[in-house]
Design brief:
Chain B: Belongs to the D-isomer specific 2-hydroxyacid dehydrogenase family. GyaR subfamily. Chain B: One of its GO terms (biological process) is oxidative photosynthetic carbon pathway. The complex is a heterodimer. Helices cover 34% and strands 15% of the residues of chain A. By secondary structure, chain A is α/β, with parallel strands linked by helices. Chain B has two domains: 127 residues, 3-Layer(aba) Sandwich (Rossmann fold); 178 residues, NAD(P)-binding Rossmann-like Domain (Rossmann fold, 3-Layer(aba) Sandwich), CATH 3.40.50. Chain B contains twelve helices and eleven strands. The longest helix of chain B has 19 residues. Classes of the chains: A alpha/beta, B alpha/beta.
Chain lengths: 313, 332
Amino acid sequence: MESIGVLMVCPMNSYLEHELEKRFNLFRFWTVPEKSAFLATNKNSIRAVVGNSSAGADAELIEVLPKLEIVASFSVGLDKIDLAKCKEKGIRVTNTPDVLTDDVADLAIGLMLAVLRKLCESDRYVRSGKWKKGDYRLTTKFTGKKVGIIGLGRIGMAVAKRAEAFSCPISYYSRTEKPEIKYKYYPGVVELAANCDILVVACSLTEETLHIINREVIDALGPKGVLINVGRGPHVDEPELVSALVERRLGGAGLDVFEHEPEVPEELFGLDNLVLLPHVGSGTVETRQAMADLVIGNLEAHFLNKPLLTPVV
Amino acid sequence: MENHQERSDHRSQDLPQVLVIKPPPVLTLFEDKFISSKFQLLKAWESTLPLDQFLTNYAGSVRAVLCSGASPITADIIRLLPSLQLVITASAGVNHIDLTECRRLGIAVTNAAGVFSDDGADAAVGLLIDVLRKVSAADRYVRNGLWPVKGDYALGSKLGGKRVGVVGLGGFGSAVAKRLEAFGCTVLYNSRTQKPSVPYPFYSTVLELAADSDSLIICCGLTAETRHMINREVLLALGKQGVIVNIARGAIINEKEMVECLVRGEIGGAGLDVFENEPNVPEELFGLDNVVLSPHRVVFTPESFVAASELVVGNLEAFFSNKPLLSPVIYE
């Protein structure tokens, strides 16, 4: 298989690079100075693309790779892949579901606790040397808060299960109601936001869910409400979110993703009712290894004509 | 200032008297709402007299004292209160009260253990996730503008599947354990005595618990037995990847030895709400990214404080009407 060309579109994991190099002819796209020339030269040997949440395979890339057979994403999200184009051309697509569910859900709860209980702000306060005895600043209780989840897939359900251990009543919005689920369903995001204390974005990014968190939703969540985003930056109308936070029309936010990563609106840096993370939802040693193994496993299965491990298309 | 009692409202002189040496947090935040509408507070801290003289002059018939960590009830203090029958603390911890002396003299003690369990447990889990997933450190990274410059942040460690040792399975420990189970952690514990109705494996010493755990959460009370119970030996047993979270009392950990272990990389990280000499925090910790620090406020929510105030009032009302106390500390 050493002659099979695999194009990795951006750096994501050195273990994955190392393992792919052992098995395939790995091209590191980000090290190529003249990308068009490179593609023209190598297009006939590239049979696989490996992408992630930052970059995948859009229509343009798919068109210039006539021998492309499979796109394997080092993520569960598929928003950087033109799925319709892949279907049209019979290109297989795989992702990394399940192995990262726990980490993302853990982080969602971690963000809720950090925002409500002001853990990051406390840490800054102590490190500043300003702690004096008798400094009684109250924070917001988490147990029992109403948690509203947008998207009740694997990650949404995992968030719900954890929040229940803190006695949080769970409600959700989803494309369709799930009658077998005991949580309260709201047929609209605004209604969900109006009826919860903490709103969590845990759905996939599609045309329908682009800017699903808009001004109306933010207003419904309100000055005591907290937004947690472990989905994708474009789920949120970011300028609206920033002004709501700066003007204190929204109580707080825990954000792991942003519209234009790695750029984060600087107006947020001075606010203490926020936690800002550099897209670390699946960022543990254990999970990234499991994700890498899935990418490798899917590619090997494909080129050995075996069933794919986690196909999407 | 010497005319302390004359300065009190005449109405309040009919109310039962409660001595307060230094105001506990609940009093500072909620006095008007809860406590002084029902009781006459004898406020020692407002007097310019030295404490023992104040008590000798004014506290001879005092039957109840409301205390806190800032105003310990020692044998010496008790000796100056010949009519004392009740010590109330608005905290969960009772390490600032000479329980042996109280027991000897038949003085009842009440605390506020149950009302803080949820908030304490929430913060303990929050601190553990913060250390393992580098939440505070990564937040700093973003706010310092480093993400576009230095790229992706370092990987953290997965919480699910971790073996978490809970030290002390009382109100706090049980609440922590219940939460951790939902994250797929395996909960282990050490406690003074084994609890047969509990599904978690019991370890009879903290050392054995640490050796078999990935993380330790300290949830027990501070007593002569637990002082410096977490020492270098225990921390080394916890190991290079090990994380310790302390929401109990600073002195349960040998702080000097813990700081050395952290600085030398002999344990993986720490989430600390309490310290041996608050508000002083060892400065070596300020340079470490694998440590999350909190200024002794894991139970500081409005709900906890209101509940604690209500419990103080409830215990005082029960005491002064000869009814059973709501939350007596049972001597073991």
